[in-house]
Design goal:
It is built from five helices and no strands. By secondary structure, the protein is mainly α. The chain is elongated and about 75 Å long.
Length: 133
């Protein structure tokens, strides 16, 4: 257990899974939280009124085994991919914000009557808006 889990409460319907030291907690947390594991648990839950899990079901979760080197490499790759995803998301959000500013700028010019009616002036307006942003 890490400091993050300190003071957590475990109710009667909860179960703690402890990994051996040779297992990378971050990797196996991702595996246990994966859609494949969730689907397995949903399909394996027992009970007619309220579905439940038990230790027998949880022990049978299909979990791949990796060497320490493989675990570290997988976590490194996942961290790299997640960092790239965050960077792409930030770039997309910045692009959307720029587009929003351009829309507002064009609308403001339209309301001030500064928009021309021919293609050349529309292209010139777009160049000006892009240059301002």
């Amino acid at each position: 257990m890490s400091n993050r889990e300190e003071n957590w409460i475990c109710g009667t319907g909860s179960m703690i899974i402890r990994l051996k030291k040779e297992y990378d907690a971050k990797l196996y947390s991702l595996i246990l939280g994966s859609q494949a594991t969730v689907t397995y648990l949903e399909n394996s839950a027992v009970g007619s009124t309220l579905k439940n899990l038990n230790e027998k079901i949880v022990r049978k979760i299909p979990v791949p085994q990796f060497s320490n080197e493989e675990q570290h490499e997988i976590v490194r790759l996942i961290d790299d991919l997640l960092a790239r995803e965050r960077a792409a998301q930030q770039a997309a959000e910045q692009a959307l914000a720029s587009i929003d500013l351009m829309k507002k700028s064009i609308l403001a010019r339209a309301f001030r009557g500064e928009l021309g009616t021919n293609k050349a002036s529309a292209l010139e307006l777009l160049r000006q808006v892009l240059a301002e942003n």
